[in-house]
Amino acid sequence: MLINELNDKLKELSQGQSDIVKRRQYKETVVALQDLLRDKLNTASQTVLENAIYSADKDTGNLQFSAHNDSISVCVWGNLAKNARLRQFQFEDTEVGFEIPRSMATSDIGLRFVICDFDHFSEKCLSYPAMKKRVDLPDLPERVETPLAAPEEEKEEDESQAAVDPLLDDLDITAFQTAAKTDPVEPEKETPADDAEKVEEEERPKSVEIIVDESAKTEEEDVEPIDPYQNDSTVINLKQYVMIGGVFEVDLVAVPPQPKQAKEWIMKQVFLPKLRTLKFEVAEEQPRITETTAKELPPLSEELKQASINDGQYVKLNLKWSKKVAVPENEVEIGRWNYEKNCWSKNDIFDVAIDRANCTATFKTINFGVYALFQDAYVNMPLQQWEITATGLNQSVIRLVANFTEVEIEIHDDQCRVNYEEGDKMLEHLQPISGRWMTPLKLIDALKQIGINLFPEKHASTYVSICEKDEDIESLVYLQMAMTASAISYSFSQFNGNENVDKSTVIIQCHDNVSTKAEDINEWSLISLSNSQMYRMKIYEDSEEFSPDMHEHSEIHFDMKHLLNDFVSKEAKDLFDKTSPLFIDTVFQLLNSMKLITFS
User: Which pLDDT score, from 0 to 100, does residue 167 have?
Assistant: First the structure.
């Protein structure tokens, strides 16, 4: 759908100043499309409720309607019979269901479920991780702006102006507010000497000066927002938890008077095409259904809340996530979206039961609203093992072994895909996305959507035990691994986390995959990599003790390509020079997102 395409475009945009305006336009368009989609769903739901009598079930007399496409499902139940014994129902196609209290079963109400595969709420929360964007290669030169010389001829002035205009066009107008908001200063009386200096100053060459308002800084500047609920145990921390199964919007709605037929006439009350949402309000006297525009009701006292639960004045909801989503044997959290705080809250949710075999979550609550299921984002971290195998020119395979899954990613030129062997029940959750070639960012999103998160965010080290390394050397190693991945295989080394190895040094295994020499076929070498020196190590992976000594046939180098040239085959060296820049960029994007060196 168009919203997904715009989100993909947002990820592809660079983090430079020139894309700020375009990014803002895309985000505004996404919000406008989401509002339009919500209005269309409300209008359609109201139309179904107005004509509910024509879709009533013959056995129960109640409305049972459902419709769905690839990303959205809408299920509507209308209480037409008002039978106090019919208090629960489950939709067959989506397997979501509910149980309402007896007091609600005799009212003109209905329940609407809107199930979306996409999450359009979490991005409003301050604990939501920033959208993962494409990372530029670290060796690209930075752009340096030089002052413009004073124009000597009219032609030079035109060229200078043409060079400046694109910069000004890309800046937001608020960037110039600082100059306009400065306090006026009373001018001093000028003397003839001052006039001479002023004239001389005006004749000097000037450089272009762009004044940027500090208050106009965007989210691209890596400013960490303060989350006011970071210490609130009732709020789901989106830096630690990730959503599974999409968003479940459960609304209590009013069922309008139904059309009545008198002989050949049909009498129907005319309504405004607006869905009336209701609130189930727990009061001291008795629960009541009210119509209010407030998104959140005032919080209940613990005594009143417990009394409502004891009296059975609650709603029981049954939600189902897709069987395509992998949910390990870990705790699953349920959250309801709080519109006032803009966060997912665990308040007023109790008696939670998780059935992993049937992919369902059942719980009781006293609130309707937007619900979602969450699991630990780092359940598969740190990695147990990883290996990058060279399979040919511009071809490579990355194999990852995590706590609850194994993933094989094949790379060919600028595309990548997940491989899956038919009949492997342990990894059958990979089947829906396997075999489809896609870009690295789309592959990362596809894995996350099925519950497999192998890509740590900025704050992951807070929740996962890692092998801490300097970010600059780590990024440099990923780039140089990508440059040589057509011929050289790489793998995890136990010595990378040795207590005698500091965070400025990375140790990995390497292997020449194209060598035809018998002694090279099964030989893996250890290499030590840092900003100051790179060399082949004397020890091997199966050595009992660690030693930083250099191999007798190695020398100190300052990049991996020249280091590998010391001991790899001629065929491997030829592949180094033939490797495509698109392949290098694709491998780098994946490695930099996985953080194999630190999160293993």
Answer: 35
